[in-house]
Amino acid sequence: MRTKHVSKLATATLLALGLVPTTYAGAKLDITEDSYISLGAGMRTTAAITEDGAPSGDSNSTDFNVDNIRLYLSGQLMPAVKFTFNTEKIDGDIDVLDAIVQYEPMAEFNIWAGRMLTPADRIEMNGPFYALTWNQYTVPLYPSDQGGEAGRIGRDDGITVWGTLDKFQYAVGIFDGLEGGANQDDSVLFATRVAYNFWNMEGNPAYYTSSTYYGAAGDVLTVGLSAQFQEDGAGIAGDAEDFSGYAVDLLMEKVLEGGGVVTLEGEYKDFEADLSDAARAAPDCFCLFDGDSYFATAAYLFAEPVGIGKVQPYVRYTSNNPNDGDDSDLTEVGVNYVIKGHNLRLNANFTTGDANASGYAAADDVDTFTLGVQFQI
Hints:
Strands 2-3-4-5-6-7-8-9-10-11-12-13-14-15-16-17 form a 16-stranded antiparallel β-barrel. The chain is 5% helix and 54% strand. It is mainly beta. It contains three helices and 17 strands. The chain has a single domain (8-376), classed as Beta Barrel (Porin). A hairpin with a 2-residue loop joins strand 10 and strand 11 (239-255). It is globular. InterPro entries: Porin_dom_sf (IPR023614), Porin_O/P (IPR010870). Residues 1-25 form the signal peptide. Keywords: Signal. This is Porin.
């Protein structure tokens, strides 16, 4: 899934941010025969119009936002000993996203330590830059994607062992998870992801993923299973519950005879965090979703370019069904204008509904039209 290969690690760097590049450039500085540093960058920006979203509640809101701005730095000290250091805009400041020491002796067995993505479902392993749709975070997310008390932006401090055995991939990690609050015994978070590639092997370093390869990977059919568990991982001090969750995800991408590409993606997720009403009402509650959810996406990439890019329309439906709240759903209809894979694409989409990453309906159903630009180098 690369047309320009700077280095295996340079690619892995981008992946560590939630990636899997189709084309990656960037700069590489050789220090010695065995050591080097690679540098890259990425940005996503949007303009959105939301029905009745203005403070008055009677007018449409118009919002311009830089959603992501990242610097990618990676390197190698010697064969099998590497590092990744990436930054992101977090709460308005540029902060550490990833900081990983990587020991990679063989395809079957590797160890990463530091701050990294916790093994999870495909959409969280994609990160925002390697999604098929523009708004993929509309189902409940694992604890490290819940605002900072158990990690941030899918990342947490810990250790992950990962590898590839033929067409089977695995990643198993231990992380801090929720610290303090409900977790008074300082229990750790266990996280794992396994996947099997029935057709072509997805060309992603480590355990990262992508939800489309725009046909560059050929025919893809992969089923993944992720799971996480933390004792006393939800609630408040004195009124805690264990958190457990699992997700089954599927990606199928088929290159047709005429050059068009059909992509189908889906996921079912089940979380258990059976909190009391008192805990959920507490202002300091680390309240996780309790229930199940799913989404399904279909896309078609036209074979013939239009100008300098290709057109990929898609549709996605999300349904969240909490055990102790109202159901929510969201439909997204959009189109990607793919100029240079995941490195340069434009997007236009329309969403209607109330589903979001918490799993609960946070507001009334709203309609939003968004234009997005994504750039990486």
